[in-house]
Structure formats: C-alpha cells, structure tokens
Design a protein that fits this description.
Elements (H helix, E strand, L loop, with lengths): L3 E6 L3 E6 L6 E3 L8 E2 L2 E3 L5 E3 L1 H5 L8 E2 L13 H6 L6 E4 L5 E5 L4 E3 L1 H20 L5 E6 L5 H13 L3 E7 H9 L7 E8 L4 E9 L2 E10 L4 H20 L7 H17 L5 E12 L2 E10 H7 L1 H17 L9 E5 L6 H11 L4 E2 L6 H14 L6 H9 L16 E3 L8 E6 L16 E3 L1 E2 L8 E4 L7 E2 L8 E4 L5 E5 L2 E5 L1
Parallel strand pairs: 1-11, 11-12, 13-18, 18-19, 21-26
Antiparallel strand pairs: 1-2, 2-3, 2-4, 5-6, 5-7, 8-9, 9-10, 13-14, 14-15, 16-17, 20-22, 21-24, 23-28, 24-25, 27-28
C-alpha cells in the first residue's frame, strides 16, 4: 500500500494523484471534483475557506480571497514580476520582513505570506486524499514549474512542512507530464511536452528509448498563463463599458471579480465555439440607475486581443528546441497538457513552430499530477534509493562534455586557464536540462561556494580555493553556466550556501 501521493499545485487548479499497483488515479476532492481551485479565502467571520467554497464567495469578498499565489511564491516586493502582477490581483500586496511579499487580508486585519496560503491549500488536498483513501498520508512528490528558482522551490517545501507533509521530491511540470505520457507513448521517439497552465507555460523535450525517459531540455515563461488571457479580455470589457457608460469598473473590486470570472468562462467557451454571450446584470450604477453589461464575444476578437500572448508560446518552443540542439521538424510527437491546451489558436501556433500536429493526452491539469504520482511510487517501492537518484536515472540530461556530474554531491569545476586565480560563473537557477563545464579538466579545481542572497542569473567571481567569492569585475565575458536540477538544494554551511548540482 502506497502512502506517497503526487500533487500538482497549480496556479488556478490543483490535482492530487496516486500510483498504486494498477494505473495511476486522480483523487477527487471532498466536493467530488477531480480538480481543486487553488484559492484561499477568509470570510467576514475570519474563517479560512479553501478550494471551491473560497471560489464561491470570491465575488462578494474579493480583497480577502487569494488566488494565483503560486506566481508570488519566493518573490520579493521589489521583483519586477510582482510589480507586473499586482495590478491584476484583487487583493493587496504589501512588503514583509526582508522585503518578502505579504498579502493583506481585510477580514482578519492582518497579513499572510504566500507560504501560509500554500499551506492552507496543501492541508485541504492532504485531508481530501486521506478521506478518499481511508488512511493517513504524510508524504508527497510535488510538481514545480521548470522556471522556479531555488527560493521558490524551498518555499513549496516549507509550505509542506508547515502542515506536516514530508516532501519526498520535486519534479518539473513538463517532465512530470512527460513521465505520465510515457504510459501512453512507450515507443522510441523524441517528444515535446508543453504544459500551458493558469499562470506559467513550460515546455520540455524528452526522449523515450528502451523504456528510459531522458529530458533533453526544459524552458518556461513564469508570467504566461491562462490568467493573462483572462486579464486581457477583462481590460477589453472594461474599456468597452467605460466608452458606453463613462463608468470605470476597475475601481469596484466586486465588479472586477465578476468580470474575471466571466472572462474565464468566455475563454473556455471560445475554445469550442466561434462566439459566446456575456451577460453581467447590475455590474454598476450611477445617478440614472443600474447598468448592465451584455456583449457578444467572438473567437476572432479574442485571438486578436491576445495575439502577443500566443506569440510568447512560440518563444518558449523556439528556446526549448535551441536548448535541446534540435532543428524544427526533428520531433516525433508534440503533446499539450494544462487548461490552455484546448485553445485552437495555441494548437495552430504549436503546429506551425514544430511541424507537428499537437495531441492532448490527458484532461486539463491531470498529466503533471499523474507523473508526480508515478515518481512517488518509485520512491515508495525502493526502485531507487531516493527522489534525487530517481531524477538522475529517469530525467538527467548528461553533460555534453567531460565526466557526468552527480546530483548527490558538491561538484568541483576546474579552472579555465593554468595558474588563473579566479573563475567567473553565471548562476542560473531555472532548470534547462543542460550542464556546461569549464574546459581543461586537468587544471586545479575550484569548489563553487555561493554566498547567501544570490538572485536569478547573478554573475559571481569565484577566487582561488580558500578565498571568498566577490562581485564580478567589469570587462570580462569568461564564465560557465550552471543549470540546477529541479530537485537540487542549497545547503547552508556557516555563512555560505554550497550548491549541490
């Protein structure tokens, strides 16, 4: 009997799965649904509501209902991404200790952290799983975006620990989806998996050879998801209403929340229909009386308003192909997962960029959770010693030059030139599926020691052994890029962080 579940903690919806002796299954929520809205609300009595109950009261209590928190996890208040996201959210983002993102909740007159919100959501998912299985569950493998950095991954682990959930491993979204797809496409082939979720778009290229799945490359856009299509339609609706009535709906949080819910429904309907009707009675009022919003939305209009967003899918595809060193046309199959997979405009764009007609293998949001459950089963049955080794065996894309790098220990990189006192690196926390070495492996080695507080894509100067790291000197381009695996960790030793690659 397996007690390790797989969890896809999505931006808009979350899914729990279990891989037992038979085929993996999706565990329904206590409400009987296969997905749980990733929403946490605090009602006017201060009670915490999670999932569907939180979503149902969002329209009347928007500023105390937290959605899309996955996009804020592990970020600081001065992060450009936070500044971009803040105007699109109904709740107030404030600065916490060390400039961390906090969320002010009016109904409890206090702030909460994104980690606390994730903890509420994980606790709901955990209790629902235990209710369905009829036994306690204490461990999980959690899906993370390919673009998540170490701080964001650590935040997910902390959220699990807060509710007593042991995180046995983290797995990148497209890689988890690829593992799920390996059940459906067991033959030797090269495949691209594109996971279009509510907040993030990830892509991964994997190879299936003789029962072994290997990831060649992964790339993601952390600010591209279904929420952005919703926001674009909301902005268009607000403009149309203002032109007709002179009233600006963005100033009314309850009207704004109703617009977002209606826009999401329109987006879903336009995936299968050429037109849809939007009706929002009593959306506003002025001295002349109540105002209603009633419009016909066409798919053509929606696609025109979101053309630039769809183009960014093309960028993700091109970058992933480049990272994998594959030409267009080299893919045997393209599989789409996530809610955005249903959108015809995106399907057409994928076909144009890959020369492959994409397939949809799983219901929206379920592929990654199933992949995480398969990994959880591997850990539970001692197929491998631990989740880190499982990732190495199943998904490691070996270095293109030099000896393999173990993900289980610190690795020493050689100096690029004889007798050189320093070496410069570019630290990239996003998983890319490739690891580049410094040349000349016969030279003396320098251990990579990373000072605390390093941010994404920081460039460091690493002095000779025994010295401390310092800032990069100007005018030099010699560096090595280190790609951290999805289950990599930073280990604190006294005042420094040591990277285990």
């Amino acid at each position: 009997m397996f007690n390790i579940i797989g969890i896809d903690l999505g931006t808009t919806h979350s899914v729990v799965a279990l891989a037992g002796d038979d085929e993996p299954i999706v565990i329904p929520t206590a409400e009987g649904e296969r997905t749980c809205p990733s929403i946490v609300g605090f009602d006017h009595s201060g009670h915490c509501l999670v999932g569907r109950p939180a979503q149902q009261q969002a329209a009347g209590n928007p500023d105390s209902t937290v959605c899309a928190v996955k996009r804020l996890v592990g970020r600081r208040i001065d992060d450009p991404a936070v500044r971009q996201l803040a105007p699109t959210l109904p709740y107030e983002i404030v600065s916490g200790p060390h400039k961390a993102v906090n969320i002010y909740i009016p109904t409890i007159r206090s702030t909460v952290t994104p980690v606390e919100i994730l903890g509420h959501l994980l606790l709901k998912l955990l209790h629902d799983a235990e209710l369905y299985l009829g036994r306690s569950v204490s461990s999980a493998v959690i899906v993370v975006p390919a673009s998540y950095n170490d701080a964001q991954r650590q935040a997910l682990v902390e959220a699990g620990q807060r509710v007593g959930l042991e995180i046995m491993g983290l797995i990148a979204e497209p890689v988890a989806a690829a593992l799920a797809c390996s059940m459906l496409y067991p033959y030797n082939q090269t495949m691209m998996i594109i996971d279009g979720g509510g907040g993030i778009t990830d892509a991964s290229i994997v190879t299936y050879r003789d029962g072994i799945v290997k990831s060649r490359a992964s790339h993601g856009d952390p600010l591209l998801g279904g929420d952005d299509w919703d926001t674009r339609l909301v902005n268009w609706l607000v403009y149309q209403f203002e032109q007709e009535t002179g009233l600006h709906l963005k100033r009314d949080l309850q009207a704004w929340q109703r617009l977002r819910q209606a826009a999401e429904q329109c987006k879903v309907e336009l995936s299968t229909a050429a037109t849809t009707q939007l009706h929002l009675p009593y959306i506003a009022a002025d001295a002349s009386g109540p105002k209603h919003l009633a419009l016909t939305i066409t798919r053509d209009l929606f696609e025109r308003e979101t053309e630039d967003l769809a183009a960014r899918w093309g960028t993700v595809i091109e970058t992933t192909l480049h990272e994998a060193q594959l030409p267009v046309g080299a893919l045997d199959k393209v599989v789409l997962t996530g809610g955005m997979a249903q959108m015809p405009a995106l399907q057409e764009r994928v076909a144009a960029y890959t020369h492959c007609r994409p397939e949809i293998a799983f219901p929206a949001g379920e592929a990654a959770a199933i992949g995480a459950a398969i990994q959880a089963r591997a850990v539970a049955t001692n197929m491998v010693r631990n989740a880190s080794e499982f990732m190495k065996k199943m998904f490691e894309s070996g270095p293109r030059a030099g000896p393999p790098i173990s993900p289980d220990r610190p690795h020493d990189l050689p100096s690029p030139q004889p007798y050189r006192a320093t070496v410069q690196i570019t630290l990239t926390e996003a998983f890319s599926g490739t690891t580049r070495h410094l040349p000349q492996p016969d030279d003396p080695a320098i251990a990579i020691t990373i000072p605390p507080g390093v941010r994404d894509d920081a460039r460091l100067k690493l002095p000779a052994p025994g010295s401390s790291a310092g800032p990069e000197p100007a005018g030099s381009d010699d560096y090595v890029r280190i790609a951290i695996k999805p289950d990599a960790r930073f280990e604190r030793s006294e005042d420094d962080l040591r990277l285990t690659v």
